[in-house]
Amino acid sequence: MACVLCDTDGGQLVWRGEHLRVIRADEAGFPAFYRVVWNAHVAEFSDLDAGARQHCMDAVTVVERVLREHLAPAKINLAALGNMVPHLHWHVIARFGWDSHFPAPVWAAAQRERDGAQEDALRARLPALDASLRDALAQWAA
User: pTM of the predicted model, to two decimals?
Assistant: First the structure.
């Protein structure tokens, strides 16, 4: 069976390491939506050995920390659902009080109309954020 995360990066590649990569997803309404994707095809977190699980969660932590430092979101959401794409990946999503779904999950019904001006302002900050993510992940992986 074909796997989109085996066949493609799964979004805009921010950083790639030996075991995992970080991408920025193209999710309408949520500009600061990142994923930590395990490079090898595994379906579940428990498919990894203890060292690999720690490595994966350390990367998730680096991404969360950098998003918090650069964007000061109301909350960071972490999720590893894998229902639609059964390839291990963690969602790391910066959430804001103005986003259309907050405080509900991004997959729930919208709570209000999207704020295009806020989304655009956040989107303009992402190149600098991506550069900081690359630096932080490179230092962590060294």
Answer: 0.95
The β-bridge partners of 93 are: 33, 77
Q: Is the dihedral of CA 45, 50, 55, 59 positive or negative?
A: positive
Q: What is the pLDDT of residues 24-57, one digit of tens each?
A: 999 999 999 999 999 999 999 999 999 999 999 9
Domains of the chain are 4-141 (3.30.428.10)
Q: What is the pLDDT of residues 99-133, one digit of tens each?
A: 999 999 999 999 999 999 999 999 999 999 999 99
Helix (H) or strand (E) holding 91: strand 89-95
What's the CA gap between 122 and 22, in Å, rounded?
19
